[in-house]
Amino acid sequence: TPRVVSGVQPSADSLHLGNYVGALRNWVDMQDDNECVFFVADLHSITAGQNPATMSERTRVTAAQYIAAGIDPERSTLLIQSQVPEHTQLSWVLNCITGYGEAARMTQFKDKSLKQGAENTTVGLFTYPVLMAADILVYQANQVPVGEDQRQHLELTRNLAQRFNSRFGETFVVPDAKILENSAKVYDLANPTAKMSKSAPSDAGLIRLLDPAKSNAKKIKSAVTDDGTEVRFDRQAKPGISNLLTIYSSLTGTPVDTLVAEYEGKMYGHLKVDLAEVVTQTLDPIQKRAQELLDDPAELDRLLARGAHKAREIAARTVTDVYERMGFLPGA
Ligand code: ATP
Ligand code: MG
C-alpha cells in the first residue's frame, strides 16, 4: 500500500473550513487505501517567531482537530513533528545537498520574505522547503497530498531525493505530488476573491472549526455577495454566491447544479440560512469530539507519544541508512 504523508502548521487556535475541505477531509478518506502519516508541523510554525505560551496548546488543539475530523490514530500514524527528531536530523543532511540558488528560487520564500522585510526574515524561513522535504523523505512517502501552492516545494523534494540516490545509492522513495485539484478551494466570506486563510488581516470571513455555531452562522449570514438576486455559480461575476455554493456542495455532496436548481427564484438569504445549518451540523460533532480530547490533555499527550514512537520506527531506519551512506561513524 502506498504511504502518504501530510501536515498542517499549528499556527492558530483553530483550523478553518478551508483546511477542513482542502486538507483534513481528504486525509480522512485516504486512510482507506493508504498507509497514512499525518503530523502537526510545529517546527515549521516557528520560522517567523513564536509565542512559547501558546505553542503547546495550539499543538494539542490542532492534533485534537485531526482526530475529531476523523483521523484514526490507530489506523494512521499521528505525530507532532518536534517529537520525532529524525525530521531535523535528515533536514541538515538535505540542506547540505541543496544549492543556495536552488533554494533562493522558491517563490513562497520570495513572497513571504518580501512581505516580512529582510530584517525579519530568518534563515529558517529560507530552508523551510528543505525541512519539508525531510518530513516527506524520512517516511519514504509515495504520495504527498498538497495544494497547488506547494507544487514547487514538492518538486524540490523530488530533486533532493533523486540527487541523494544518485550520489550515495538508492535510499529514498521519490514521492509523487497528489495535487488535490477537485478538492474545493474555500474563499474568505467577507472578501470572496481571497482564499480563506489563518493569516487573513480580518477574521470576519473566517469560519473556524472550533468557533461557536452562533458566531459562524452570523458570519455566513453577513457573507459578502453581489447586488443581484439570482443564485448562480459564476466565479467572476458572483464570487460570493459561488463560494457559498462550493462550501454547501462540498459539505453535503450535493452537486452545485442541483443546488442552483433548488434555489431558483429564492433570495440569497435562504441559501445563507440553510448553509449556516449545514456548517453547524458538520462542525458540531467535530467540536464535541475535540472538546472531549482537550478535556483530558494527559491522555491526548500519551496518544501523541505513541504516535511519535510509531513514526520513529520508520524515521530512525531512514536516518541510520542515510548516515551510513554519508560515511558517518556509527553511533553507540
Ligand atoms: P497560512 O495563512 O498560515 O498559510 P492557511 O490557512 O493557508 O495558513 P496552511 O497551513 O497553509 O493554512 O494550509 C494547510 C492545508 O489547508 C493545506 O493543505 C492547504 O492546501 C489547505 N488550505 C488552506 N487554505 C485553504 C482554502 N482556503 N481552501 C482550501 N484548502 C485550503
Ligand atoms: Mg497557506
UniProtKB/TrEMBL annotation:
<keyword id="KW-0547">Nucleotide-binding</keyword>
<keyword id="KW-0067">ATP-binding</keyword>
<keyword id="KW-0030">Aminoacyl-tRNA synthetase</keyword>
<keyword id="KW-0963">Cytoplasm</keyword>
<dbReference type="InterPro" id="IPR001412">
    <property type="entry name" value="aa-tRNA-synth_I_CS"/>
</dbReference>
<keyword id="KW-0436">Ligase</keyword>
<dbReference type="GO" id="GO:0005524">
    <property type="term" value="F:ATP binding"/>
</dbReference>
<feature type="binding site">
    <location>
        <position position="135"/>
    </location>
    <ligand>
        <name>L-tryptophan</name>
    </ligand>
</feature>
<dbReference type="GO" id="GO:0004830">
    <property type="term" value="F:tryptophan-tRNA ligase activity"/>
</dbReference>
<dbReference type="InterPro" id="IPR002306">
    <property type="entry name" value="Trp-tRNA-ligase"/>
</dbReference>
<comment type="similarity">
    <text>Belongs to the class-I aminoacyl-tRNA synthetase family.</text>
</comment>
<dbReference type="InterPro" id="IPR014729">
    <property type="entry name" value="Rossmann-like_a/b/a_fold"/>
</dbReference>
<protein>
    <recommendedName>
        <fullName>Tryptophan--tRNA ligase</fullName>
        <ecNumber>6.1.1.2</ecNumber>
    </recommendedName>
</protein>
<feature type="binding site">
    <location>
        <begin position="18"/>
        <end position="19"/>
    </location>
    <ligand>
        <name>ATP</name>
    </ligand>
</feature>
<dbReference type="InterPro" id="IPR002305">
    <property type="entry name" value="aa-tRNA-synth_Ic"/>
</dbReference>
<feature type="binding site">
    <location>
        <position position="186"/>
    </location>
    <ligand>
        <name>ATP</name>
    </ligand>
</feature>
<dbReference type="GO" id="GO:0006436">
    <property type="term" value="P:tryptophanyl-tRNA aminoacylation"/>
</dbReference>
<feature type="short sequence motif" description="'KMSKS' region">
    <location>
        <begin position="195"/>
        <end position="199"/>
    </location>
</feature>
<dbReference type="GO" id="GO:0005829">
    <property type="term" value="C:cytosol"/>
</dbReference>
<comment type="subunit">
    <text>Homodimer.</text>
</comment>
<dbReference type="Pfam" id="PF00579">
    <property type="entry name" value="tRNA-synt_1b"/>
</dbReference>
<feature type="binding site">
    <location>
        <begin position="195"/>
        <end position="199"/>
    </location>
    <ligand>
        <name>ATP</name>
    </ligand>
</feature>
<comment type="function">
    <text>Catalyzes the attachment of tryptophan to tRNA(Trp).</text>
</comment>
<dbReference type="InterPro" id="IPR024109">
    <property type="entry name" value="Trp-tRNA-ligase_bac-type"/>
</dbReference>
<dbReference type="InterPro" id="IPR050203">
    <property type="entry name" value="Trp-tRNA_synthetase"/>
</dbReference>
<keyword id="KW-0648">Protein biosynthesis</keyword>
<feature type="binding site">
    <location>
        <begin position="147"/>
        <end position="149"/>
    </location>
    <ligand>
        <name>ATP</name>
    </ligand>
</feature>
<feature type="binding site">
    <location>
        <begin position="9"/>
        <end position="11"/>
    </location>
    <ligand>
        <name>ATP</name>
    </ligand>
</feature>
